UniProtKB/TrEMBL annotation:
Keywords: Bacterial flagellum, Cell projection, Cilium, Flagellum
Leader sequence segment: none
Compartments in which it is found: Bacterial flagellum basal body
Flagellar basal-body/hook protein C-terminal domain location: 203-246
Flagellar hook protein FlgE/F/G-like D1 domain boundaries: 83-146
Location (main, coarse): other
Top-level taxonomic group: Bacteria
Protein name, entry field: Flagellar basal-body rod protein FlgF
Species whose genome carries this gene: Vreelandella maris
Lineage: Bacteria, Pseudomonadati, Pseudomonadota, Gammaproteobacteria, Oceanospirillales
GO CC annotations, alphabetized: bacterial-type flagellum basal body, rod
Keyword field contains Transport: no
Keyword Acyltransferase: no
Length: 252
């Protein structure tokens, strides 16, 4: 009975955690540059006063993200960029640290700062500033050129270069804000990866989410069914306990 209860209880909790991850992936099917979260489960013995050999819980873990390439769609918009191969774009997080993203639907704020989802895009010397009203173009190596408002193409000037990096496989970890970070240094502060001169991007295009809607829906149905199964086991365990108490009361 004890084994049945703890197995079913931890299994149901694990299914709920997995459902949360699958739901988050499914809600980001149309998010530019999104990387699907992966989920796994491992068994962990119950600690403390309740420690018994029969009490083992299933714990959900997120071992990482799916870094496979998403579909690239050409938009024709000047400020849309899609990173090629394993390249990532550097952006400044809210705490001022350097983080990385594949989301390339860029914007220019009222101060002329180039942004990716409200966060400054990093260049060689920090956030990139664009002249107000300028006509902007972005090269394959991330170089940003601008033609000031009211002048001809002969006034084309380079205003910055997007920092592109190519991290090693598995080097980046996802933060709670959805941005990816390099391994922290000895002080626990996320490090900054060196710029990759060979990294390329495609201007006028966006990379879509690498989440498969069909796979996500199948996973959601599978997790829901496993949750129902665990709850049925709990109900059966409760019925068995009541029958056992009834038999004991008769014998008493």
């Amino acid at each position: 009975m004890d084994r049945m209860l703890y197995t079913a209880m931890s299994g149901a909790k694990n299914s709920m955690d997995q459902q949360s991850i699958v739901s988050n992936n499914l809600s980001n099917v149309s998010t530019t540059g999104f990387r699907a979260q992966l989920q796994a489960a491992r068994s962990v013995p119950v600690q403390g006063e309740a420690l018994l050999a029969t009490r083992t819980s299933a714990v959900t873990t997120t071992p990482g993200s799916d870094f496979s390439q998403g579909p690239v769609e050409f938009t024709g918009r000047t400020l849309d960029v899609a990173m090629q191969d394993d390249a990532w774009m550097a952006v400044q997080a809210d705490d001022g640290t350097e983080t990385y993203t594949r989301r390339g639907d860029l914007q220019i704020d009222a101060d002329g700062v180039l942004l990716s989802v409200g966060r400054p895009v990093m260049g060689e010397g920090g956030p990139i500033a664009i002249p107000q009203g300028a006509q902007v173009s972005i090269g394959a190596d991330g170089t940003i050129s601008a033609i000031p408002e009211g002048v001809g193409p002969e006034a084309l000037v380079e205003v910055g270069r997007i920092k592109l990096v190519t991290p090693e496989e598995g080097a980046l970890t996802r933060g709670e804000d959805g941005l990816f970070r390099a391994p922290p240094n000895e002080e626990g502060v996320p490090g900054a990866l060196p710029a990759d001169e060979n990294a390329k991007l495609v201007s006028g295009a966006l990379e879509g989410s690498n989440v498969s809607p069909v796979d996500a829906m199948v996973s959601m149905i599978d997790v829901a069914r496993r949750y129902d199964m665990q709850m049925k086991v709990l109900s059966t365990a409760d019925e068995n306990a009541q029958r056992a108490n009834g038999i004991l009361s008769i014998q008493g």
